[in-house]
Amino acid sequence: MTHSSATQPSGANPARVAITRTVLMCRPEFFTVSYRINPWMHPDEPTDTSLAVRQWNELYKIYVDLGFEVHLIEPIAGLPDMVYAANGGFVINNIAYGARFTYPQRQPEGPAYMEWFGANGFDVRDPREINEGEGDFLLVAGVILAGTGFRTATNSHAEAAGIYGREVVSLNLINPSFYHLDTAIAVLDDSNIAYLPSAFDAPSLEKIRSLFPDAVVVNEEDAAVLGLNSFSDGYNVVIAARAKDFERQLRERGYNPIGVDLSELLLGGGGVKCCTLELRR
Ligand code: ARG
Q1: What is the mean pLDDT of residues 237-244?
Q2: What is the Å distance from ligand 1's center to 77 Cα?
Q3: What is the value of pTM for the model shown?
Q4: How distant is the alpha carbon of residue 274 from its chain centre?
């Protein structure tokens, strides 16, 4: 791995390069909170679906303005969490490893996303093991970081390693509020990440520190608004508008943070990244 900052005078940042992304999203037409599968969800409290759609539209518009190719999957009535497209699968080199959800409430989403991948020219791999797609699999520095502890099973880490022929680094999540890896780690570019140390057990922290000695360490307050649940093109980093210190850290490192308010989708326990599945052809 190269850490160009180490070879530059202190204070200097490597030039950040935006690489236009292709993503899949799902309009939250049927979004609500009707069950509780993470601590953020309170089915007794009201949700506002039209507000969720308006906020989601802002995110969609940011991506379009950044020049992203944004694909849409048709939302399905009765699947209120389908808006969290990151969980729909994991895609590298046109190979779409399908999701197999932990909780029955979300299980029908797996085949729905696989059908979309198949209809759109991806090489679909039917999952044998429980996994929640890009919620728990992140590609950075040529390796796959894979979360476990709450949703994705470690057996699927081996399954993904076999499918992609890449090294998979398993990381144990220990805080139920940060139940998917993409709530505790943000991929900033090909070589660096931001993360919340307290979300991981000690052996996992050691792996993270040795792979990413120059990582951005995010504070509890910013993580608690799902600030890490962000999406970067290598220069522009779309983040929760409320994650103010993270915003400052990104600016200092030469990135361009773009804040968005997804407060309504936070009621389901998701943010920017959860609404975004990267399609790597
Ligand atoms: N309510 C959804 C769940 O608990 C939220 C998923 C968030 N997605 C993510 N990639 N972190 O499954």
Answers
A1: 98
A2: 17
A3: 0.95
A4: 5
